[in-house]
Amino acid sequence: MDLETVFLDKDNIENIQIDKRTRVLKITQLKPTELFEIKNFKLDSLFPDRKIEAKRKIDLIIIDGIPMTDSLKEKTKIDLNAIESISIVTQEKMNNSTFERRYNGDLLLIMTK
User: Fold this and answer.
1) Facing residues of 25 across strands?
2) Residue 69, SS3?
3) Nearest-angstrom CA–CA distance, 71 and 55
């Protein structure tokens, strides 16, 4: 697993072992988790009961201050239990602020625990 692009729930980690000789990191979790691929992200997967959210187009996803470029979206996975908060900044609000470029969709901000 490429830990550079994985966001884990720190409250679910039971034990961490590092083998310095082989440079292998082993993380034991309290309960098994399923990692969600950001490249398959759709708002209706987070808000199944709110149809208005599903109609929004997300132009940019930022996780813990890291903008998810297309190449990062391809390899980034997140434990849904690791998500502390999700905010949506609308396209209108972004285009009225001091961003360098105009956006064709909304901004999704995800903060992890």
Assistant:
1) 18
2) coil
3) 24
Sign of CA dihedral 92, 77, 67, 63: positive
Task: Give the model confidence (pLDDT) of 65-85 as tens digits.
Answer: 888 888 888 888 888 888 888
Other beta carbons within 10 Å of 109: 15
* Structure tokens that stand for 66 in this block: 């890291």
> How much is the pTM?
0.64
**What is the rounded distance in angstroms from the CA atom of residue 16 to the CA atom of residue 11?**
13
The pair of structure tokens assigned to 53 is 């959210």
**Residue 70 contacts residue 23 (beta carbons within 8 Å):** no
Q: Vertex 43, ends 84 and 88: CA angle to 5°?
A: 60
Instruction: Please measure the distance between the N-terminal and C-terminal CA atoms of the chain and give it in whole angstroms.
Output: 20
Contact between residue 75 and residue 94 where contact means Cβ atoms under 8 Å apart: no
